[in-house]
Write a structure and sequence with these properties.
Elements lengths: L1 H28 L6 H12 L18 H11 L11 H12 L10 H10 L6 H17 L2 H11 L9 H9 L8 H9 L14 H17 L3 H6 L7
Helix pairs in contact: 1-6, 3-9, 3-10, 5-6, 5-7, 9-10
Length: about 240
């Protein structure tokens, strides 16, 4: 009986691995039609009897504002172009902070956020964490950094029912994603830690300060030359 269960488990794991690799490879070239987080938000709205219309319009890499690309890296993951999906120093700093008590601090990279939003359900179980590591590793292995950032910018949540840069730009500023200014891009990046609580279009004093800090970091990264420099990194493009 034990041998039979072991064989079934191994067979399931093998098929799961094959299927997940196939899906990740498919989404390297095909825009994901939606994300697990979008499905979660829709189901929550049905349960709460407060239906929402999900807003999301895909914009390819060349139609996304360079300022926004740099802003989210500056605000969320400054080692994005260097790491392989996990920022070990940030994880250790978050663990040290959380052990001292107070508000829990996360250390998710952009790659981890794409893996979670695209494929996984909410929660902190070890199974979910293991799947997050698995999918993050697949993304880093099978996608260039450009694709990871492109999917992130087209899928991340920027308000109630607002997903992706195009919907966020139009909802908060009344412009398309290619026409975001540096300040608007920094405001969008500033609210990413809690997009359901904060609004890029109606920033608080704290969000304005955070956006100012992000613009400073954008300049330190190299401003408009940052993406050009990243093109020299074979893993990025």
């Amino acid at each position: 009986m034990l041998r039979k269960l072991t064989r079934r488990l191994l067979k399931f794991l093998l098929w799961f691995a094959i299927a997940s690799v196939a899906v990740v490879l498919l989404f390297r070239w095909v825009p994901p039609p939606g994300t697990a987080l979008m499905a979660e938000r829709k189901i929550e709205s049905w349960i709460d009897a407060k239906p929402i219309d999900l807003k999301r319009t895909w914009r390819p890499w060349n139609e996304l504002s360079d300022d926004l690309k740099i802003a989210v890296i500056a605000g969320e993951d400054q080692k994005f172009a260097e790491h392989w999906g996990f920022d070990v120093d940030a994880i250790q700093a978050a663990l040290d902070h959380n052990e001292r008590g107070g508000n829990l601090r996360g250390a998710s990279t952009i790659s981890q956020q794409v893996a979670k939003n695209l494929f996984l359900w909410p929660g902190r179980s070890w199974v979910r964490k293991g799947l997050e590591v698995w999918f993050t590793s697949l993304l880093e292995l099978l996608w260039p950094k450009q694709r990871i950032l492109e999917v992130y910018l087209n899928s991340v949540e920027w308000g109630d029912g607002v997903f992706g840069a195009e919907a966020a730009a139009r909802t908060h500023f009344g412009v398309g994603a290619p026409y975001l200014s540096g300040r608007q891009a920094s405001l969008l990046a500033a609210v990413l830690p809690n997009p359901l609580k904060w609004s890029a279009g109606k920033p608080t004093a704290y969000i304005n300060r955070r956006a100012n800090w992000i613009r400073q970091q954008m300049r330190q990264l190299g401003g408009s030359d940052y993406i050009v420099q990243m093109q020299k990194n074979r893993r990025f493009f």
